[in-house]
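Side project, low priority. Logging it here so it doesn't get lost.
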Amino acid sequence: MPSPTPADLLALSTTDVRTPIPRSQLIPALAAPPFLYIDGTFNTRDLGGLPGSALRRGLAFRSGSLTGLTPDGAAALGALGVRRVFDLRSRAERAASGPDPAVPGAAAVWTSTAEADARVAAADFVAAEPAYAAMYIEVLRRYGGAVAAVLEQVRDRPGEAFLLHCTAGRDRTGVVAGLLLALAGEAADRVALDYMLSRVGTEPARERLIAFARREAGVEDEEAPGFYNLISLRLSCWEAFLEAVRVEYGGFDRYVVDTLGFSEEDLETIRRNLRAPVSS
């Protein structure tokens, strides 16, 4: 069976979150790039895994929670060359689930954030696009130290692979992944596809993550106003976030330089270290 194309993956990612993705479609998708099977994880991908990616293959990986990582899964990450694992969870999430399991040969990195707990209010998401734009801008504000640590990794250790994750590997991880892809020069539609692929990658944990979202949002009924929008992914929400980044910071480049404090030379080094070699 041929691997799903980017168009196939995008179509699959629009599956309503309340509807299970059929196994006949899910299994081939999760078995093909950019997805990776790492035992005990979900939503695990190589950011440069799609053919023709502007970002180097085998450099940056993303996933959902590593809480269930098995020894075999940890060994697989080590075999991929992962030398740093960046944990984007809040203080409360780490306190509840504990630190990440050890990955052979990899340092665990967690940077204290301005967000004690990653709680949201479902009612805020009655209008999805502005709510997502505001939430993701808050990620850039509150997790700036963690974002800077990832960028320092790219700048200073270009030969080292790394992995970043939060709880679902969807929102905070998606924001940082989108930033990295954009800095690498990935086409806008491919950056958006990476964002949307979390709908596919989280399918094995879908019911658990919906229950987690209900607890965090403090709702008992999934029909509560705004809750469906909160647990859904839409291209329009990513586009609203990009517009908010433009208005708030002048774009990702200016966020990196003017807010995080990297120099223009740093930015160019980061771009160069992220990029895939150009074929002759």
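Brief comment: The CA atoms of residues 41 and 66 lie 6 Å apart.
Revisit when time allows.
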